[in-house]
Amino acid sequence: PFVERGENDLKKWKRNSVVIVVILFVGINLFLLLKDESKVARTSFLNVWSRVKIDDVTKTFETNGVAVPESEYYIYNDEEKGQISSVLVQKGDVVKEGTSLLSYGSTSLIDEKTNIESEIKMIESEISAVTSQIADLKRIVPSESVSTTTTTDNSREISLYVDMSPVVESDIAQAVTSAEGELEKLEAKLEKFNTTLKQIEKQLNERSVSSEIEGQVIEVNKDGQSPIITIASMPVKVEGILSEKEIMEAAEGNPVHLHSELHDKKYEGEISKIIKYPTEQPGLDSDVSYSFEVTLNEYDEALLAGSKLTMKIVVDEVTDVLVVPTKATFLSGKEDYIYRLTDSGKIEKQAITKGLSFEGEVEVKEGLQGGEMIVVNKKDVAQVNSTFITPIKTIDLKKKEFKKLSKKQYAKYILIGLLER
Length: 421
Hints:
23 strands, elongated, alpha+beta, single chain
């Protein structure tokens, strides 16, 4: 019995010793593997990696806007010119620069101008007729003799040849002289009427008001209320609203990309004015907003006042710079870092200087070069300066590629696969 008990105790001790050794072995290895900055080499399995690219980083925000007239031109009553005799435009009329809008006490002058313009047209018509007559007379060449036929009482015809050249030439010359005299009188009369017309037009200009812009009449108050006439310019601008945060980022001169869903058309412009005063009386419990204006680079007559547009405002932009995913960077102490993949197959912790960041991308000013490989998901890195592997793309593997490998290369890659993991 004592011998049997001793054998059982020995087996139990051996079994417990094996268990303790296994536990210590596993525990020590786990400790070494999980310990920060452990010197035990570990391999990182990288699902995603990327290359440093050269690209643009543009920081923007979006808001809505509405097209409004770029300017409004108001015509007020000038009592020093007297009473308004007539308003020459109606609501909806499209006017150009110089178009007469209204006149002061000049109805008789307008009538006189109309009559004179009618007289001028008649005189010009007469001058044209006399000029043609003179040209026709000068083209007549008298012959040396003129044949005439007479009839006697006995009904016999007798042909006579009479030399009429001197008489005909004299008559033509007299007719031309008479016509030229008439032409001089008509031209003098025309000059007199033109002078009178200019005087009337000068008086009308002094008593009338003309438009200084090209646009459309949007309001006419014929009852005398001011403004008498309101004209909206044809070019339009776009007005929008900024929040407290947005007004801190936006600035006059910022580029703006606009889109009209109605016309399905894109426009370009820039912020021309920011009103840095709240659109409404601010309150403790209400949001504060500010208005701003955008001037379009090109005028489009199809874009009418009242059209709704979406706007993307560019508040900062860098072009042709090194760009990496923002999630690939991390802060260690007071510096920014990224994990770089070296040509020797190691993961290296690389300090970088960040620049503009927006929508998942960040500019790298210093620390990297274009084309370098980096780790995208920093949590995939098991240890700095460790080796790494990436998923194999089986779709790209072909039997002929394996046949190119030597036996030594086969053995090398099999050992790397076994030992690294």
